[in-house]
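Mods, move this if it's the wrong board.
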Amino acid sequence: MSSGKTPVADSYGAPLPWQFQRLGKLLNALGTLWIIALMLLINTDVLGRNLFDAPVRGVTELVALSIVGIVFLQLADTLHRGRFTRADVLLARLKQGRPAFAARLQALYHLIGAALVGVILWAAWEPLVEAIRIREYVGAIGDFTAPVWPVRLIMLIGLSATLITFVLLAWADWRRANRLPARGAADHG
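Not the wrong board. Structure tokens:
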């Protein structure tokens, strides 16, 4: 007999252990606020240039750094919501005919994603340390300079949150696979 509950189609959007999705939402919100601040900065620069012939110094450099920071802040929430770019035609068919296999395949996808993000995280550590050591900056001395290390640190935070999200999604997929029938209801005919 059925319990009356429809099984969750996949792990996207479902609560994560320890309410970890809250961290992803917080980082996403910070990224959104950062976008608003950038819009205000860019508009101030445009108005300053056109009305007062006085541009805001460093806007180009800040925008370039900010885009990188914003992307990494929003990665974990984008993943949790199922908004990463992917081709899931095969997975959609499998979910109907072989839901347990589809969930295991999705768990494998998430584990591979975790491994790839782990490699990127490992590779991003040394540039952060080096940026702090040599006091790396963007801009021109005497005009405008901004340190690079805060954005590199934000990258590590975003990557860490994304790595954990990948692992938690893989775990949720595996648990769901063990609760689903091996074949879909249409196959039991």
